[in-house]
Amino acid sequence: MAKALELLGLSKAFDGNRVLHLASLEIEWGEVHALLGENGAGKSTIMNIANGVYAADAGEIRVDGRKVDISGPSDATSLGLGMVHQHFKLVKRFSVAENILLSCRRQLSITSVGEAALAVAAKGAEVGFPVKPDAVVGELSIAEQQRVEILKVLLLGAKIVILDEPTAVLTEEESGSVLSFVRNLALHGHAVVLITHKLREVIGYSDRVTVMRYGKTVLKGATANEQTAESLAMHMVGEHMPEIKPLKRQPGEERLVVERLSVSCLNGGVGVNQVNLSVRSGEILGIAGVGGNGQQELMDCLTGLRACSEGIIRLNGRNVTFASVAIRRNGGLRAIPSDRFGSGLVGNMPVFENLGMTRTTSGHYGRGIFFSRARMRQEAEKALAEYGILGATPITPTRLLSGGNAQKLLLARELEEGASILVAHSPTRGLDVRACNAVHTTIRDAVERGAACLLISEDLEEILGLSTRVAVMSHGRIVGEFSVGEATREVIGKLMLGHA
Amino acid sequence: MTVQFIINWIATTPQFALPLLLACVGLIISERAGILNLGAEGFMAVGALTAVIVSHDFGTPWWGLVAGIVAGTGLALLFGIAVVVFRTEQVLSGLTVVALGAGITGVAGRSYMHQTVKGIDKLDLGFLAKLPAVGKILFVQDPIVYIGVAIVVGLWWFLYRSSLGLQLRAVGEDPATADVAGVDVAAYRISAVLVSGALCGLSGAYLSVVSSQVWVEGMIAGRGWIAVALVIFARWNPLRAVFGAILFGGADALTPRLLAIGADVPVYLMNMLPYAVTLMVLIAPTVLKREVSAEPTALGTVYLRQDRH
Amino acid sequence: MLENVVLTRRHYVPWRLRVRNFTGGIASGLVIAFAILVAAGVSPGAIVNEFIVQVFLNSRGLAQTVTTATPLIMVGLGAAAALKLRFWNIGVGGQVWLGALGSTWIAINDIGPPEMRLPLMLAVSVVAGSAWIAIPVFFKLRYGVNEIIMTLLLEYIAFRLVQHLVFGPWQDPNTSFPVSEHLDSIERLGRLGWGNAHSGIWIALGAGVLMWLLMERSRFGYYAEAIGLNPVTAKGTGLPVTLTIVLAVLLSGGLAGLAGGTIVAGAEYRLTQFLGQGYTFSAIVIAFIARFRPIPIVITAFVIAGIFTAGETLKVFYSLSEAIVILIESVILFSVLVSEFFSSFRIRVLKTAPAK
Lengths: 500, 309, 356
Prior knowledge:
The structure holds three protein chains of three kinds. Chain B is mainly alpha-helical.
């Protein structure tokens, strides 16, 4: 029998940046095929080529044994390829039925919202995913939205179903549910591609696995043969990464204290609800939780970008609840936002202007209207060397930096003199293992030297690996707090869902 | 302020409200597709002048209106290609198109200044027109008013009740999703811009051929901008736009009425009224209550499939 | 559409490419403008004569260009100050009107001692312009009201306010024209003995130097650049965002007001019906083409002033509406806007036809 999908020798570069190099993938019918690789390995890119979103620079695609040309998403859909993206392709303001009408109008030959509602309800009943056709997508939970995406893909007649990091935004329980569903699809003859970087999922749910690294496919084989996580990890990263040494320092005085903090959300959704926290020097408090449970609001309120509706924030004993951003920074608060280019850096400014930005208000580069760019440039030169940021000069436009280097830049800036509390939100999002390691080491070293760190992250591995204490955030509240030894995935998973 | 005065005032409001309504609904279609369209004033200007030229040279006001529609659509095509294909900055492009409109009409319209043209008579709907009060208000309007209302209702139905309208709104909310769903984002956007050009052209043509029956440089006098403000007030909904247009049209209609009864009013101060009312209406909702914005999510953005989403 | 053609965004735009495309944009704009003028009945020789020789290479013409450039420099600087921070001050003309109004008010009411009269007039014109733009910036920062429409509506209101005054309370009793009384001699900016050029040009050039220092060499300029490029980051790193925006925008209105003041005190010597017309779009064209940088703004303003001067001649000798100037400006700006496309994006034509 012909293979379901063959991607042979695909190469792709984004504006000179080579992302795929002669990568190949062969998917059989009726199997769950894991596509494993760390961030930046090229997994999403190669599947987006299959899906018609990107065009390959070179290579061949075969569906069910026949050579095909895919020039757009419609071609992919008509060939039976369906992808559930990480960022769902759903219009949040429309209802479920309206989204189905939008996406499936041709395949289902429907012209009205009513017909779409019937179709999606029927499919939902068929596969055991209950769905409310009139619900507005933006008001559904992430797991519910994902179910709508999957139903949509099935309604489009997809025989080859691709899921891009489906469990990245789900709790443990929801993840299990989706992965079991996906195995079921394979049993019914579909070909399923599971893009993931989570080794346990590969081992637990896939039949065969392809590992990618730096845009190349480096390993292909039956999962059973590559049972150990060790071996898979080796192929993913290409080398053994040293483990982060645990902190030796004893916790000192309280640096950050938050009492009964409540922050309302702009669109009326869940904000922060009566949160109490305390972080001491020498410790890392990790806030675990699925995104959208108030983490961004908490971050914005702590840094001074959003006002709270009630509560108190104390930095090194000082009440800063109503203080400006500048005052909090002077008091020792530093922040690593989750969107490094959107909120942390100015992409179109050169590196040195970004590095020095936080010291301009104190008059370090000149008081009044005076300003010494020369001094900023010199200090940037030193910082680049000290933090090992390679391939960038002080005058390089910051947006040209890789994710890893940009994050190192952010850390270099934030951890300069006077940093006593670091609030970091998803600091390793989108970074490859080496960069992750560098970021974690930098944070750990800063804490070892006496800083306190509040680490907010959706990546449970990161939380468990780096923190000294762990708290779980769900629906704006802190629903559990443990030292890192006590915390287990199961307990945390249940807390994230809201069970005690 | 007698009752008669008020009746006359309300009766003349539709002819002031209609151009605002048409332009506004045109802009709503464009913005619903995600294109921030500030070119209304320009489309209206070329529509107004072209309508006068055709009307004057051929003596046919109806063909003048058609010519106005074509002219507005033509300028809109230029704008559409710029912002959709060349992905130029939408605010600046809109301003440039307004200036282009002012420039073209200033130069080409020089020989047509102050030349009156034949207008379009109001309809006489027999006994309906003779009804007290209501008759004068609702049933003695020029035919374009009725056509205009029909167009607005039709566009409302299109936007909210048809599959094509759903696709258009999807382009304005989330073009990446629409693209994956097989909707031709560029085609919808350009079409929406062309529709806005057509409606603004008709609006301008109405102003010159029906309302004042003459071309004067600068006669649009900011009504295109009021229409832009009206879009926000209408929360991007054609039916709400009707209320807004009546409100502003009423303000616009007041000064001539007062002059007609011989009231001694400071003309230029009174002329500020429509703009001042527009300002109030812009400010009031945000000051009084923080509502969730009804703005199309992807308004003003550039869409490129290859951008990482 | 056009499935064969694939568009990708350029990550890194080489400097040479940017310059080449910009020049190409300006050049094609000029070519199209040239064609329009020819179509309007002006011979090519006359075009070159009027637009280059008569306005820059001829003493009287150059003097006229300098006079016209005086307020254009200031509105260009003013527009750039706000636009750089992405505050869309589209109502520059309104602030010019208010500035003209303010200085006229001081003059016709003879406020202040004679030696201080002129400086007071100019100072009040700055304050009036700033006050006019303070309204939209307040509502933008406090309530998030769209400043594009607000500044523009205020321009329409300002124009009508001036009409009311020159047709009414401020009308010169000796004439039936809508103009105010003449300014006394102490209230006038001195002539330079060169055509109509007046000492307002020194004010304009001085403003250019000050803005260069402020925007390119001072801390304020650094803040302004950061805020314009990424206001979220600027807030998060503790930069004084609100203060910078307010100051920059008030400066924008003040410069425009000053332009109005110098027109009244230097060129017209009274408030007239149309002295503030046409500055808004010109200011935006100048500011944008000069990429918001003060020295290029001064140069661009001179070029635009040349176009205006030529336009005046065309109006008289070729019966062309003065709208020809705004037509030329908009054609050039349009070309420049479109040319940016070729810097930001890369076009690839796929060799394989799409499969069906």
